Automatic annotation (TrEMBL):
A single MF term (Gene Ontology): catalytic activity
Name this polypeptide is given: Endonuclease III
Organism expressing this protein natively: Modicisalibacter muralis
Superkingdom of this protein's organism: Bacteria
GO BP annotations, alphabetical order: DNA repair
Amino acid sequence: MPTKKQIVTVLLDRHGRTFARELGVELAKNTPAPLYRLLCLALLTSAPLSAEAAMRACKALGKAGWTTPAKMADTTWEERVKVLNEHGYARYDEKTARQLEALTDHLQNRYAGDLRQLRAEADGDVKKARRLLKEFKGIGGVGADIFLREAQACWHEFQPFADKMALKSSAKLKLGDDASALAKRVEARDFPRLVAALVRTQLAKDHQQIIDWASKA
């Protein structure tokens, strides 16, 4: 059996890319547009579709130019349905198009289009942050956790944060079953990459491969 350090090294090497980075948004600057796109990704990923379909659809929204609340608010329901339908959301396009509108309206009305105001209101309380995120149409517990898992890269007060999928994957690899235990495995700057890698491993179901690769490292 490889050491935990070897497993973590392989995890980061094979899967150590955050979903925000895959989407093409830079969270480090903590600016409104990337945070909004992350919220949209959390919404799309909450649907009972594959993570690949959610990412593909969210990239399509960005390619269409709908990267801010103001730009999304200028779209029609029909336009949103068309883009979603053409990029993997054929069964959920109409519902998700409505949810995107409601989510955007709530963000503009409640936080002036800036999720950093939600951060300030939560004031480092992860339970309050989850509750506020769940006030967005289409964002449930899973969606809130997805958002916080990624946002901790720039909202450092919520680190270490790991959602259920990441912890389930971590337990399979004997790395610990809570975020605090996981945080001891890497430096703080690499923690968001580690939890993303664990989620990707869970999605790929390649835990045994990770162990085998680590054994050969």
